[in-house]
Amino acid sequence: MSKTPSPCIDVCKYKRGGHCIGCSMTRDQKSLFKSLKKDKHRRAFVDMLIKQQAALGKFHAWPEIYARKCKKKRAPLPGGL
């Protein structure tokens, strides 16, 4: 089983109050995710991000794109998807 992939979906445009229009992460959050080594921390980060997206709204395409990314990398889907 592969480790949890980055929630980034390669859009990287920060137009929603400093949040990426593709994944909702801020630049600091993207740096933080890259520093996470343990998979349980990476999964917890993605779970937090799913809640952040729900609170911010307008991230309807992300779950499908991220699910494809997980499938391609043979990684389990986060519980919130």
Automatic annotation (TrEMBL):
Protein name, per record: DUF1289 domain-containing protein
Native source species: Sedimentitalea arenosa
